[in-house]
Amino acid sequence: MRDNLVYKILKNHIVEGELKTGEPIALKIDKTLTQDSTGTMAYLQLEAMGIDRVKTKKSVAFIDHNMLQQGFENADDHKFIQTVASKYGVYFSKPGNGICHQIFLERFATPGDTLIGSDSHTPTAGGVCMLAMGAGGLDVALAMGGGAYNINTPKVIKINLIGKLNKMVSAKDIILEVLRVLTVKGGVGKVFEYGGEGVKTLSVPERATITNMGAELGATTSIFPSDERTLEFLKAQQREEDWIELKPDEDAFYDEEITINLSELTPLTAKPHSPDNVAKVSEVDDIKVDQVFIGSCTNSSYEDLMKVAKILKGNKVHPNVSLVIGPGSRQVMEMIARNGALADIISSGARILENSCGPCIGMGQAPGTNGISLRTVNRNFYGRSGTLSGQIYIVSPETAAVSAIKGILSDPREMEVDIKIDMPDKFLIDDSMILEPATMNQEVEVVRGPNIKPFPIGKELSNEINGKVLIKLEDNITTDHIMPSNSKLLPFRSNIPYLSEFCFNTVDTEFPKRAKEYGGGFIVAGENYGQGSSREHAALAPLYLGIRAVIAKSFARIHKANLINNGILPLEFKTIEDYDNIDLTDDLKIENIQKSLDEGIVNIKNLTKGYEFKVLVELTKKEIEVIKVGGRLNYVKLNI
Ligand code: MIC
Ligand code: SF4
To answer: Domain named Aconitase/3-isopropylmalate dehydratase large subunit alpha/beta/alpha: which ranges (predicted)?
Structure first.
């Protein structure tokens, strides 16, 4: 069988297992990235592993999420990451240098290599043909230590692009179309490989917008071939030597193929509160807009902001709109400052933010009560903006800029302006905000502020679990529901006891109290439980509150791995009736767990209602071992 692009990279990196759809494999990881909000935990875990120095080709620590510094916590965490990174051989991108995925694409991404990052949008680097996956902090720490990364062999889906985008239609509209067709759970267990004639019409930053938001499909990752457009980008980043040509064999095998005709696409939007709630902008009623945010790792490249500047030039932001713009990196910011585009943006009345995640993760710019906010971000989950009644619409930079001028959600094709941007021959290169780590035998003192608290470690699995159902949830619960993030909570990412007080806060403020009162218990959920972020905190906070098992209709990939890594049992309902029959505070009992796990099926007694039901154990042998010893850290220690 002829190889697709994904299999070519997998074959070069597989160290354990067999490439057969669904079968577990372990991959050698070439590079890693962390960001600050998951990074503190990842480096605490790296320290706990007791290695001297990272063993990857390159590992980079970024500071981009938690930038407000309302108190000492952020600044302390930054110092911790800077010093611990230096000590262990990790490059450090200083706060202000930009968003991890944008900088990684610009300065570090290399075709054909593997990357894992403690952030779900790590697949952005698939835009230059890396096999790049989001992972929990512990998996990233293990990869830094030279360990392999475990996934199930994915199905490979070809997205065949034909035609060419029309004026004012954007890469964002392509991925929104994919989300419309496949939904937020349509990518679980799959890698999306883009191919076809339309690929060469897309630049690397456009490709990166698409692979970035492939995370919203629940996919393992997304990837583009490495071709002359990749070379053009790497050359302009003065990294020509990193280029290799990489494409699928002719007549390569794919599990499925989906064709998208770029010429037929029109501007799209994802309406509140899900990235797959997609509609044509032209078919949505005229909605009055309160706020527009252009930025985030999805749409903050030089190309994106140049297009926005061309639209804004000579225009003013509508009196009722607050337009905020956050460039993706210092490279982008400095280039638009030097060529005058920033002046056009400022002159329109836009507010300029620093190069960071900002409003995307609720770090400021929360909309007002019932506020309508158009954003170029990738996620519009309920409550994520920081305002529960906020209505977030995901749009392209073109739609965002035109709507900011008009004051209503507008189809950008209504505006006559030439926004064609050529890729610069040379980007502005200045890596002075990327600090090299200390040399091998240099002494580095790791600085640890008082906000850094020890993290909970799972305990050996007992043979019987008793407990109450502490919460019953619907389908598509996100990690933003489980462990919300906003400007008040992000500073406490290294303080699980504090964070756990806010576990499930957006859906049920009583959950932490109930969990404590009953001494822990079970979470019951619907399909795709834990979609979204890679934050391990969505497993650690429940672990701290005594959760022993989550019973769901199905799980999102990264969150399931995080539960396993922390010793929480993920169990899957066999029938919808079994889910329907359970109620909040029902008493459940599982006996003989050790044996049942090996057999792949677990019997649960509902003591309150007096019946029994069976749930599935969709775990590999190794994952069962990990759970039995109370999580991966224990497993690694026992197996060294
Ligand atoms: C996100 O976009 O949800 C985040 C914030 O970047 C997360 C990481 C985190 O929760 O810290 C992610 O995507 O993994
Ligand atoms: Fe940052 Fe938002 Fe991207 Fe997450 S999705 S990395 S919060 S910009």
So the answer is: 8-407
Q: Which residue has the tokens 């120095």?
A: 53
Average pLDDT over residues 541-555: 97
Rounded CA-CA distance 128/131 in Å is 9
Q: Respond yes or no on whether the N-terminal peptide bond of residue 101 is cis (omega within 30° of 0).
A: no
Q: Give the pair of three-digit tokens for residue 607.
A: 């003591």
Percent of the chain with pLDDT over 90: 95
> Is pLDDT above 90 for 314?
yes
Are 519 and 499 contacting, i.e. CB atoms less than 8 angstroms apart? no
Ligand 2 binding pocket mutation candidate from 97, 297, 535 (most atoms within 8 A of CB):
297
Q: Is 119 a catalytic residue?
A: yes
Our answer to whether residue 586 is catalytic in this structure is: no
Cα–Cα separations (whole angstroms), residue 566 to 42, 69, 538: 13, 30, 10
Instruction: Tell me how far the alpha carbon of residue 637 lies from the centroid of ligand 2, in angstroms.
Output: 33
- Could you tell me whether strands 278-280 and 268-270 are parallel, antiparallel, or unpaired per DSSP bridges? antiparallel
In contact, 413 and 419? CB cutoff 8 Å = no
Q: What pLDDT, in 10s, does the model give residues 479-524?
A: 999 999 989 999 999 899 999 999 999 999 999 999 999 999 999 9
Integer Cα distance of 36 and 92 in angstroms: 11
Cα gap 464→605, rounded to integer Å = 11
Question: Which residues in 153-276 belong to E strands, given as ranges?
Answer: 155-162, 190-195, 221-223, 256-261, 268-270
Domains of the chain with bracketed CATH: 5-264 (3.30.499.10), 272-413 (3.30.499.10), 464-639 (3.20.19.10)
Kindly state the average pLDDT of the residues 186-215: 98
Atom number in ligand 1 closest to CA 493: 11
How close is the Cα of 411 to the center of ligand 1, in Å? Answer: 30
pLDDT band at residue 442, thresholds of 50, 70 and 90?
A: confident
Structure tokens at 52: 């001297």
DSSP result, 201-227: GS-HHHHHHHHHHGGGGT-SEEE--B-
Q: Can you tell me the distance from the alpha carbon of 404 to that of 385, in angstroms, rounded to the nearest whole number? A: 18
Look at residue 125 and tell me whether its pLDDT is greater than 80: yes
In the prediction, which pLDDT does 441 show? 77
Tokens of 615: 């749930």
Burial environment of residue 438 by CB neighbours within 10 A (0 to 12, 13 to 18, 19 or more): middle
Q: How far is CA 538 from CA 505, 533, 541, 558, in A?
A: 12, 9, 6, 11
